[in-house]
Design brief:
Elements: H1 2-33, H2 37-55
Helix pairs in contact: 1-2
Length: 56
């Protein structure tokens, strides 16, 4: 059971890292495409709240 649990945790870790990578890519694209400060601020707040939910 211990080995199985560790494997599951590793898989979850990888999934979260992939999600964060995708979020980072989206943020970079939005940052590049929208020069307005408000848009950038909204994207950052949105990303932080998603990361916060994942880390709970």
């Amino acid at each position: 059971l211990a080995i199985g649990s560790e494997t599951d945790l590793v898989i979850i870790d990888i999934n979260i890292n992939q999600i964060l990578h995708v979020l980072g890519s989206i943020t970079s694209i939005l940052w590049t495409n929208h020069a307005q400060f408000r848009n950038i601020q909204n994207v950052n707040i949105g990303t932080e709240s998603v990361v916060y939910r994942l880390s709970i």
